[in-house]
Design brief:
Blueprint: H1 2-10, H2 20-23, H3 33-53, H4 58-76, H5 84-91
Helix pairs in contact: 3-4
Length: 94
């Protein structure tokens, strides 16, 4: 089966790596990454918009933003913390 996948991948047939009978009763994965990122964005915007209303000073908002983003990403991705290299890529894009 791995040989079939490797051959079809090298041929560029990424959408047909296996035949339907080889896949069997595997359930399809539902892509939810865009939904999660939209939820993170919504939570960050709501918290950052609500912080001045709650009386936080302007100087605290700059420090609050990265903390809110990290906590929202971890909470919405069900506890999967970003690796140090992923955090570095956020600060220093390649």
């Amino acid at each position: 089966m791995l040989l079939v996948i490797a051959e079809r991948y090298t041929e560029g047939r990424v959408g047909q790596l296996l035949d339907d009978e080889q896949i069997g009763d595997a359930t399809a994965v539902v892509p939810r990454e865009r939904l999660r990122m939209a939820a993170v964005g919504t939570v960050v915007v709501l918290i950052m918009a609500g912080a001045p209303v709650a009386g936080l000073p302007e100087a605290a908002l700059t420090a609050l933003l990265p903390v809110v983003v990290l906590v929202a990403v971890i909470a919405i991705n069900r506890g999967k913390t970003p690796s140090p290299s992923e955090l570095t890529d956020l600060v220093i894009p390649r």
